[in-house]
Amino acid sequence: MCKATFEFIANELRPALEKETTDWRAPIPYKVRLAAVIWWLATPTEYRSISNMFGIGISTLCNLARENSTVINGVEVPVFLIGDAAYPLKKWLMKPYTNHALTADQRRFKTRLSSARMVVENAFGRLKGRWRILLKKNDVNISYVSDVVASCSVLHNICEMHKEQFYPEWDEEMRNYERQHGLVQPNDNVDPNNQNIDVTSDIRDAVSAFL
């Protein structure tokens, strides 16, 4: 991330991040607060190393990470998921038809779903390549994980909007990490807990007909 992009983010978040000076002590500068969290999001570095780097306590860094991520993720956006044949068909997750004799609508649906999924996979690859915190087991409280992911997504979009450089080796490093740690998609099977298969099939059929 170049200095101009960082300054843009810092200025946008300054009202929420800047703290008042009290009689007891001066607050951590808002740019330092933001920089420490961005470093944490962008690398797999542990809390201790980052706290030493920025001259703040580990507990302070943990609080900053939680606080800043909540600020960054200030807008709630509904999410629609698509997946390949390995995933179960659910109301909130569409997958391609797997039978061999497809209608024209079903073939069109399958083609467009595949095309959209390729775009999404490429976007997720760039996201994980830039923000390495998403590559490893997250050690934050589970109730806070969604804020971390959302924060990475918002910061990533800002980097994309500002034409920040994305190096090819980042993508290769990300893929090597996933291969080494066995991060693969689920097996192609039917979800036994999906009791509403008729309803979800009707939803997929309706989308197929619409396309």
Describe this structure in words.
The chain is mainly α. The chain folds into 2 domains: 3-77 and 141-176, no CATH class; 78-140 and 177-211, no CATH class. It has 8 helices and 2 strands; from the N terminus they run ααααββαααα. It has helices at 3-17, 30-42, 47-54, 58-72, 104-130, 145-161, 168-180, 197-210, and strands at 81-82, 93-94. It has a two-stranded parallel sheet. α1 (3-17) crosses α2 and α5 crosses α7 (168-180). The longest helix has 27 residues, at 104-130. The protein starts with a helix and ends with a helix. Residues 74-78 have low confidence and may be disordered.
Topology (SSEs and partners):
Blueprint: H1 3-17, H2 30-42, H3 47-54, H4 58-72, E1 81-82, E2 93-94, H5 104-130, H6 145-161, H7 168-180, H8 197-210
Parallel strand pairs: 1-2
Helix pairs in contact: 1-2, 2-3, 2-4, 3-4, 4-6, 5-7, 5-8
Question: How would you describe this structure in keywords?
Answer:
single chain, 211 residues, mainly alpha, 2 domains, two-stranded parallel ribbon, 2% strand, elongated
